[in-house]
Design brief:
The complex is a heterodimer of chains A (173) and B (148). Chain A has 173 residues and is mainly alpha-helical. In chain A, 75% of the residues lie in helices and 0% in strands. Chain A has a domain of 67 residues. Chain B has one domain. In chain B, helix 1 packs antiparallel against helix 2, helix 2 packs across helix 3 and helix 2 runs parallel beside helix 5. The chains are: A mainly alpha (173), B mainly alpha (148).
């Protein structure tokens, strides 16, 4: 929480990237506390590791410091109103959430119980997350694979265009 | 590229371990936390560390750009191929049950294969994205050098 506020207030993008890594690592620790090993591993590897590296790679292409924002009270007021109303609604919605760990929530009563009871009989592997991810919900994961592929292709397409100045000078190469 | 001796030696020691750990996450994913996505990311991280220490030229000599493009597609194709084999053998798309006579072994074989596909795609996509950023940086530097 404190880290998040610090990130918003910072103008130094390098420090912000580092704080994001810390934020991800803290989230990963939180997931470990909640016994969600798979998610924790993902958060630590992707959030704290690769995202930070990619953000730093982007920072080498741009400036280190964010440009100071021009103060215009009018815009600020409207933005503040939208943020305040949305935040209030979200907090209001949390009153409807079931108690943490309650056994009667849809998460526990819907298909979750079936997976917990059947995974070992169906596949003989103890990690239910892997079973759900790769077998019960295999087509979802195929979609995720395509998302990664599309992201790679999009970055390839965007960054393969050489800067104009470079093109002019090195055309004969 | 770094000439710092400590960095070079520690990296030389760590990179194989990180890659081994990635393979562990990949192929032990059914028994402990892990799977294709995490393994791919960790493997790519090891390669990126190699590039940061020993330079992009050596990094591309290990895994050429062309290999990244091809592997990125091969990963997804492995995944689709497993699904299509199921269909050809008379099952549903990505059902896995038709792969082997023992249903549990069939599921495990299916899971391991599709996770491998995901791992290959994720690792090569991330390596390619990083390569592209580094390439662009080199282009921009070249422009700046020529225009004082």
């Amino acid at each position: 929480m404190l880290v998040a506020i610090a990130i918003v207030r910072l103008r130094d993008l390098f420090a912000a990237a580092m704080l994001f890594a810390i934020y991800s690592l803290l989230s990963a620790a939180l997931f470990v506390v909640l016994d969600a090993g798979d998610v924790a591993l993902t958060e630590a590897a992707v959030g704290a590791g690769i995202s930070t590296i990619l953000v730093l790679a982007v920072l080498t292409l741009t400036e280190r410091y964010e440009a100071p924002i021009k103060k215009s009270a009018h815009h600020d007021r409207w933005a503040m109103l939208v943020v305040g109303v949305t935040g209030a609604l979200l907090i209001y919605a949390t009153f409807d959430l079931p108690q943490f760990g309650s056994p009667t929530t849809p998460v526990q009563t819907h298909v979750g119980g079936h997976y917990i009871a059947q995974t070992y009989a169906d596949m003989g592997i103890p990690n239910m997350v892997a079973a759900v991810l790769a077998s019960y919900r295999s087509i979802d994961t195929l979609g995720e694979g395509f998302v990664i592929l599309t992201a790679g292709l999009a970055v390839y397409a965007l960054l393969s265009v050489r800067p104009k100045k470079y093109q002019g000078k090195h055309r004969d190469e | 590229m770094s000439d710092n001796k400590i960095l070079r030696i520690v990296a030389r020691f760590l990179i194989p371990l990180i890659m081994l750990f990635a393979l562990y996450i990949q192929f032990h994913g059914e028994y402990s936390p892990g799977g294709g996505f995490q393994a791919g990311v960790v493997f790519a991280a090891a390669w990126i560390l190699f590039v940061l220490i020993f330079g992009m030229d050596l990094g591309l000599a290990v895994i050429p750009k062309r290999a990244m493009y091809v592997l990125m597609l091969i990963g997804v194709l492995i995944y689709c191929a497993v699904g299509l084999i199921n269909v050809i053998q008379g099952g549903a798309f990505l059902e896995f049950a038709t792969l082997l006579p023992n249903p549990q072994a069939a599921q495990q074989a299916g899971i391991v294969t599709v996770e491998l596909g995901i791992g290959i795609t994720v690792a090569s996509a991330i390596m390619m994205i990083f390569t592209k950023f580094a390439e662009r940086k080199a282009w921009l530097d070249a422009v700046e050098e020529e225009a004082p």
